[in-house]
């Protein structure tokens, strides 16, 4: 009787969404953060090693972000870094902000003991108008970027194999001397610098190396996705779209 009433009351085009909502209500939600809601297994959140790494990085979040949480996105980054830690090549982060994710990664893979360098590239004060569109700059202002350079220097000063590279990409790309890259993270929220970084580092990324796109599937970042898809097609590779909003390439 109730099912019959629902079918009559809800327009047909909305029934799939209604069924999805009903499924979530009938099952235990295991994860509800960062635009991702699911009932699938999320046991990784109970892993002590990950929990410790997440806490180290989460403590660096700007106060303006409030109590925002992003465990699964962080877990993907830690997984990718763990994979990359076992092959030759350095790590490069393009878009650092306070260094939250990088601090998590360093803790998770014990990066201080690895024979690698980790290059953290950023203006450390938000987007650069010279390489950002008007729409990208508008989004930058809403995200509340501030000058965090001194804070980031303090965060990573205990790690001699971590190097900060200050300034806008592409200007600073030649300051990374590595000939082999195992892990490249792209998270600058604007198209031109992200494409420039991909073009510059691609040939240096080793076979099995990881490229992680932070904004790939998020609403409002469609221009970045189109640019990255075009780059991937040109290189005859594909980007794995993840439900966390990230994109992932494992270089052949």
Automatic annotation (TrEMBL):
Pfam families: TylF. InterPro entries: SAM-dependent_MTases_sf, TylF_MeTrfase. The lineage of its organism: Bacteria, Candidatus Wolfeibacteriota. This is Methyltransferase. Gene3D superfamilies: Vaccinia Virus protein VP39. It comes from Candidatus Wolfebacteria bacterium RIFOXYB1_FULL_54_12. It comes from the Bacteria. SUPFAM superfamilies: S-adenosyl-L-methionine-dependent methyltransferases (SSF53335).
């Amino acid at each position: 009787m109730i099912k019959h009433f629902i079918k009559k009351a809800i327009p047909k085009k909305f029934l799939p969404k209604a069924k999805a909502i009903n499924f979530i209500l009938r099952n235990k939600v295991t994860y509800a953060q960062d635009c991702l809601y699911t009932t699938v297994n999320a046991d990784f959140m109970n892993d002590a090693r990950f929990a410790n790494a997440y806490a180290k990085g989460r403590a660096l979040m700007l106060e303006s972000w409030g109590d925002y949480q992003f465990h699964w996105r962080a877990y993907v980054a830690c997984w990718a870094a763990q994979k990359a830690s076992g092959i030759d090549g350095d790590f490069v982060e393009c878009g650092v902000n306070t260094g939250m994710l990088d601090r998590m990664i360093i803790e998770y893979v014990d990066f201080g003991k690895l024979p690698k360098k980790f290059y953290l590239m950023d203006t450390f004060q938000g987007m650069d108008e010279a390489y950002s569109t008007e729409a990208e700059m508008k989004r930058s202002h809403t995200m509340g970027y501030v000058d965090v350079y001194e804070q980031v220097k303090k965060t990573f000063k205990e790690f001699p194999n971590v190097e900060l590279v200050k300034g806008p990409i592409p200007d600073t790309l030649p300051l990374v001397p590595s000939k082999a890259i195992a892990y490249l993270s792209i998270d600058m929220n604007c198209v031109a610098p992200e494409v420039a970084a991909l073009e510059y580092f691609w040939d240096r990324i080793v076979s099995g190396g990881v490229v992680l796109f932070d904004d790939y599937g998020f609403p409002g970042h469609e221009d970045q996705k189109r640019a990255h898809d075009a780059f991937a097609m040109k290189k005859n590779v594909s980007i794995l779209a993840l439900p966390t909003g990230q994109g992932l390439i494992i270089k052949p």
